[in-house]
Design a protein that fits this description.
Layout: E1 2-7, E2 10-15, H1 17-22, H2 35-52, E3 59-67, E4 71-78, H3 90-94, E5 98-105, E6 109-113, H4 116-128, E7 135-139, E8 142-147, H5 154-167, E9 169-170, H6 175-181, E10 183-186, H7 190-197
Parallel strand pairs: 3-5
Antiparallel strand pairs: 1-2, 2-4, 3-4, 6-8, 6-9, 7-8, 7-10
Helix pairs in contact: 4-5, 4-7
């Protein structure tokens, strides 16, 4: 579980599928009102407080983004804190979080490479399996390769994920964030373009 602060009132939590499995939670459970998910959320908020001093009292907006191979991204935004002079019902205080949960599913495969050489190696191996697409971004001193597997057969998609995992790290950064804060280096067919311009 990785937690980072996006602003004073907003944090991002990246959960791997291992994080979920360890707690006996399936991906589909994340949008169900079940005790295990509440426990996980409480654990996330405790860790956010310990690591970042993020106080999760009051209303929270929670966005959950499911990524195909990497896990889930949970973005928590803190709402306006209740006026201190307002009476607080003791029972209400027991309800730790008021959550408004929205869910989005992203099928985009997203991997970060710290070294351009590793990106090239991954591209050449992936190209050997017939994968040519992808968009390449430069973001926070890393190369981010994103591939939309929409028309890809599942076996090919799993093979691609295995290749990218060998050379890079799964990343939770979304296309929207990359478009806004990163630099798009190759808009489409990134793997083919890299293989054409840089030989092994």
């Amino acid at each position: 579980m990785k937690i980072e602060r996006l602003s004073v009132d907003k944090i991002r939590i990246f959960l791997t599928f291992d994080d979920l499995t360890e707690r006996g939670i399936q991906k589909e459970d994340m949008w169900r009102e079940i005790p295990k998910v509440h426990e996980l959320f409480s654990e996330m908020m405790e860790q956010a407080y310990t690591e970042l001093g993020f106080d999760a009292t009051g209303p929270l907006a929670v966005e959950v983004f499911a990524l195909p191979a990497q896990g889930m991204v949970v973005i928590v935004t803190r709402g306006k804190v209740q006026n201190a002079s307002d009476p607080i019902d003791e029972e209400e205080a027991e309800e730790v979080y008021e959550m408004e949960v929205t869910l989005e599913q992203s099928d985009v495969i997203s991997y970060a490479f710290h070294d351009f050489e590793h990106l090239l190696k991954a591209s050449h191996v992936a190209s050997g399996t017939g994968v040519t697409e992808g968009a390449l971004y430069s973001y926070k001193n890393k190369w981010i390769l994103q591939i939309d597997p929409e028309d890809m057969e599942e076996a090919k998609e799993q093979a691609l994920i295995a290749i990218l995992s060998e050379y890079g790290d799964a990343t939770s950064v979304t296309t929207a964030v990359l478009d806004e804060y990163g630099k798009r280096v190759i808009a489409e067919n990134a793997i083919r373009t890299l293989c054409e311009h840089f030989h092994k």
